[in-house]
């Protein structure tokens, strides 16, 4: 059911984050500014008929927080030509990606939301996504099969989620509003999904996207088991972070909100000096013999 995908994606590889979970809600605190999202935080567009100004970070239309991205149509429809708003994502063995989407109206544009690709060596292999037709029908869809999900409602927020197991089960699972609605084999051409896309054909209506969550399910499965074993305090802090762990600490890494590593310690210890760091939000990743746990800290 997939429309023709034109070769367009950037060839630069994504610098894989060490975080087990990444949230993109287009907030100022995440480093986003109001205005075109194109060029912010590696968001890109491939299009022949939609200007960058049609992809706006806006306020007051969010499903989560304050900001969201609103995509507007110029009504310059080109047959069999889709417009792709996309971003590189980490190549996890077991990947979970979710987002909130709201589509403007029926009998207008056609959409592929939360569409995932494997882009490598100049080729694009489609893993799957949610297909919203102009008729109101919508599907959990990929190149191997699809599942009808009923009728979609314009102006309604939908939470869409896809889980991909590249290693063990080699399948793709689709969730609609937190309910599993379809499970499909994964195409053998998809080595690792690494591109997240939101697509439409610019036929008179647009959409809003917010609250994107990208997870490494392998890391989460380890972290979730050990959440009660590692504690950090005080938080917020202005000078030191104390770490209390039931297990031996192997390493501690501190990242800023852009995902850059700003501090690392590789010996057993229980106190981190953060007095020389700028004020703001950070993620601290603590590795023990039983896995890795990531926590948010605030430097005052």
From TrEMBL:
Residues of the signal sequence? 1-22
A GO biological-process term: carbohydrate metabolic process
| UniProt GO MF annotations | hydrolase activity, hydrolyzing O-glycosyl compounds
User: InterPro entries per the record?
Assistant: ConA-like_dom_sf, Secre_tail
Tell me the ranges covered by the Secretion system C-terminal sorting domain, including all copies: 232-298
Domain of life according to the entry: Bacteria
Sorted keywords for this record are:
Signal
NCBIfam families recorded for this chain?
Por_Secre_tail (TIGR04183)
Question: What is the name of the protein in this document?
Answer: Secretion system C-terminal sorting domain-containing protein
The organism's lineage is: Bacteria, Pseudomonadati, Bacteroidota, Flavobacteriia, Flavobacteriales
């Amino acid at each position: 059911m997939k429309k023709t995908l034109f070769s367009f994606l950037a060839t630069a590889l994504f610098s894989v984050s060490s975080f087990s979970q990444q949230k993109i809600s287009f907030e100022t605190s995440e480093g986003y500014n109001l205005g075109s999202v194109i060029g912010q935080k590696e968001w890109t567009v491939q299009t022949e008929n939609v200007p960058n100004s049609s992809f706006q970070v806006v306020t007051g239309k969010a499903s989560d927080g304050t900001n969201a991205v609103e995509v507007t149509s110029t009504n310059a429809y080109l047959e069999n030509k889709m417009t792709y708003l996309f971003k590189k994502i980490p190549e996890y063995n077991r990947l979970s990606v979710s987002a909130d989407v709201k589509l403007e109206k029926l009998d207008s544009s056609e959409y592929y939301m939360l569409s995932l690709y494997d882009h490598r060596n100049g080729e694009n292999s489609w893993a799957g996504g949610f297909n919203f037709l102009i008729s109101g029908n919508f599907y959990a869809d990929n190149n191997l099969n699809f599942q009808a999900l009923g009728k979609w409602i314009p102006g309604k927020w939908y939470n869409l989620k896809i889980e991909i197991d590249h290693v063990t089960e080699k399948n793709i699972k689709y969730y609609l509003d937190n309910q599993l609605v379809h499970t499909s084999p994964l195409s053998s051409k998809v080595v690792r999904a690494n591109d997240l896309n939101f697509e439409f054909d610019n036929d008179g209506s647009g959409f809003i996207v917010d609250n994107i969550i990208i997870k490494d399910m392998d890391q989460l499965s380890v972290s979730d088991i050990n959440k009660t074993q590692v504690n950090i305090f005080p938080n917020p802090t202005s000078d030191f972070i104390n770490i209390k762990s039931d297990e031996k600490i192997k390493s501690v890494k501190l990242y800023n909100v852009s995902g850059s590593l700003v501090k690392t310690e590789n010996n057993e210890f229980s106190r981190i000096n953060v007095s020389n760091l700028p004020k703001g939000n950070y993620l601290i990743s603590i590795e023990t013999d039983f896995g890795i746990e990531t926590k948010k800290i605030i430097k005052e």
